[in-house]
Amino acid sequence: xxxxxxxxxxxxxxxxxxxxxxxxxxxxxxxxxxxxxxxxxxxxxxxxxxxxxxxxxxxxxxxxxxxxxxxxxxxxxxxxxxxxxxxxxxxxxxxxxxxxxxxxxxxxxxxxxxxxxxxxxxxxxxxxxxxxxxxxxxxxxxxxxxxxxxxxxxxxxxxxxxxxxxxxxxxxxxxxxxxxxxxxxxxxxxxxxxxxxxxxxxxxxxx
Length: 207
Ligand code: GAR
What we know:
The chain is 34% helix and 21% strand. By secondary structure, it is α/β, with parallel strands linked by helices. Strands 3-2-1-4-5-6-7 form a seven-stranded mixed sheet, sandwiched between helices. The structure holds glycinamide ribonucleotide. Residues 8, 10-15, 42, 86-87, 89, 107-109, 118, 120, 170, 173 line the site of glycinamide ribonucleotide. Glycinamide ribonucleotide (GAR) binds at residues 8, 10-15, 42, 86-87, 89, 107-109, 118, 120, 170, 173.
């Protein structure tokens, strides 16, 4: 199975979905480690599944560049072929990007390029959109600017709060994320090439 490392900062519901999918016999990917930038509650899902965890906290390093290097080292030590940001609330620096070219994806709770950044659900509600959703994208040096790999729409209800809307987004998001990782792992099984194809992969609906 394709070795996958998941990066989290929060509750880890997307991580939990990936762990459940990876536990199915014959799954094309395996979660070989989970790395967080804070002692995230979601790390419990990894511990429960017997998956190694690491915390690389910004506060433990003299500056951002040293943290970027430590994060890249922690991920590289787990030897993944695919890195999945699942609620990881920090920008990815050059060391990790360079170590894993065409191999880092992110899930985001909005229909990019609308509402990038760390308050996507709040921003969408504040803007008054009637439809929002979730996106899985390739990670580049920008803030949620990478190539879109998959998207799903979610209706905004009149009485939605940030919490209720985010919960409905997460329900479709985790299913979509598992679909994308499964599709990439299936494709990668056939070759040693980069996990993310160089050509735009227009498939908006993962298998
Ligand atoms: C997810 O909705 C993810 O898209 C979002 O954080 C949530 C994490 O939930 N990420 C971002 O907003 C990144 N900018 P989880 O910890 O329950 O998986």
